[in-house]
Amino acid sequence: MAFAITDAAAREIRSRIDSSGCTRPTASLMDTSDTFRPSPEMLEAISRNASEAELLALATKEHREVEASLEYHLSVGIYEASDCRPQDLVEVGGVHFAMPVEIRKYLAEHLLDHSEGRFLLKKGDRIYRKLMDLGKEQGSAV
Questions:
Q1: Whole-angstrom Cα distance, residue 130 to residue 39?
Q2: Residue 6 DSSP code
Q3: Whether 24 contacts 80, CB under 8 Å
Q4: Measuring CA to CA, how many Å separate 94 from each of 61, 90, 135?
Q5: Fewer CB atoms inside 10 Å of the end CB: C or N, the chain?
Q6: How many Å apart are CA 7 and CA 36, to the nearest integer?
Q7: Order of strands, sheet of 126-128, starting from the edge strand that comes earlier in the sequence
Q8: Is there a contact between 63 and 8 (Cβ–Cβ < 8 Å)?
Q9: Which pLDDT tens digit goes with each residue over 2-35?
Q10: E strand or H helix that includes residue 118
């Protein structure tokens, strides 16, 4: 069995594609979390056009402070196909994905679904709500 997607997942991805503005939209699986409000220090640095190094240092510091409270979940991002490696482009259920062959093999028996506003991966009786959990269970990085 190959990696597959349900009609519900395909509809949600197509909705994201339609609102993306991409000329050659390509979907990609990822873990994401809800955003958090930047600190006044970060807002001040942005408003004075701080250097990239300073912004990165501030962002890293803020991320460390909120990391434990972040709740990650599986999502699908939309990107330009030209930003992806050509060998990673594949069509699944009528949707173009950027997915390296190693990941396609790893997810061969998985089904991507969308339910109650969230994406999830199913394999048999198991349900994965984030890629990080899939990697932990398999004992490797995804």
A1: 27
A2: -
A3: yes
A4: 41, 10, 26
A5: N
A6: 32
A7: 4-5, 111-115, 118-123, 126-128
A8: no
A9: 899 999 999 999 999 999 999 999 999 999 988 8
A10: strand 118-123
Domains annotated on the chain, with CATH:
4-34+71-138 (2.60.300.12)
Phi, psi of 99 (to 5 degrees): -155, 110
Condensed to tens digits (0 to 9), the pLDDT of residues 108-120 reads 999 999 999 999 9
- Residue 34 burial (CB < 10 Å; 0-12/13-18/19+)? exposed
Burial (CB < 10 A; 0-12, 13-18, 19+), residue 72, is middle
User: β-pairing, 4-5 with 111-115?
Assistant: parallel
**The pair of three-digit structure tokens given for residue 132, joined into one six-digit string:** 């990080």
Residue with structure tokens 């600190």? 39
